[in-house]
Amino acid sequence: MRIAILQRDPVQRAQIERVLGQCGHACMPFSDGISLAKALAASTVDMLVLDWQGTRLSGAELLKTVRAINGNQIPVLFASEDTSDDSVLRAFSVGADDYVSLPVCPSVFRARVNALLRRAFPDRFDNVTLDAGAYRFDMRRQAVTVRGKSVELSGTQYRLASLFFANVGRVLSRDHIYAMVWGRELQTLTRTIDSHVSRLRVLLDIEQHNGYRLQPVYKSGYRLLRLQDDAAPLQREAA
């Protein structure tokens, strides 16, 4: 998952990034709220870890904007040295999902982050299959079938496909896609994503007759849309 971190203290910021990185998460660290706000205007993330007393733009002010634009979809956790009852209550009043003290306890912090992510994105944590209409993903085998017919995908193609189908209807920015599929931040403009999306659309026959459309979003990235209201709903099967 891709997590943005707002933390003034470089030592605390590095510790949070290290703990999240050990869990396999991709991190976007920031020292001030203005820089993070600018990044969020052009990018997408799966979670925010905010400093309550941020510089230039506080975590609370940033959260109000995030909630106004994205609703409650993105989980938000505050990590702060200020653990006063007043600050904690104010954080929850502006839409925080959790609040922890600094310095973080690695094991507890990992558990709380994963609990929030599991609640927001259950298909990515607790299930071995993902059914989406004509499409079926086997997470354990990293295999895909379309209307019961197996489609052979490379590892990169599978990661790209499962990312889209786990985020139906959500705009995914190019740098988000690149970080999640290729495992590193996008530094320069590249046609790599576009060529892979074009190829994936053909391989999985992502067209109207199968109930989905994979569309570009101007100056952002891509979005997978479900076209049929009566299309088979996502079904989750436990291991």
UniProtKB/TrEMBL annotation:
At the top level of its lineage, which domain of life is listed? Answer: Bacteria
* Classification via InterPro entries: CheY-like_superfamily (IPR011006), OmpR/PhoB-type_DNA-bd (IPR001867), Sig_transdc_resp-reg_receiver (IPR001789), WalR-like (IPR039420), WH-like_DNA-bd_sf (IPR036388)
Boundaries of every Response regulatory domain copy: 2-117
Output the Gene Ontology cellular-component terms.
cytosol; protein-DNA complex
Post-translational modification 4-aspartylphosphate, affected residues: 51
Q: Which residues form a coiled coil?
A: none
**Example of a GO MF term:** phosphorelay response regulator activity
Q: Which residues form the OmpR/PhoB-type domain?
A: 127-226
Q: Where is the signal peptide?
A: none
Keywords attached to this entry? DNA-binding, Phosphoprotein, Two-component regulatory system
Q: Which residues bind DNA?
A: 127-226
Q: What GO biological process terms are annotated to this protein in UniProt?
A: regulation of DNA-templated transcription
PANTHER family with a match to the protein in the record: PHOSPHATE REGULON TRANSCRIPTIONAL REGULATORY PROTEIN PHOB, REGULATOR OF RPOS
**This protein's name:** Two component transcriptional regulator, winged helix family
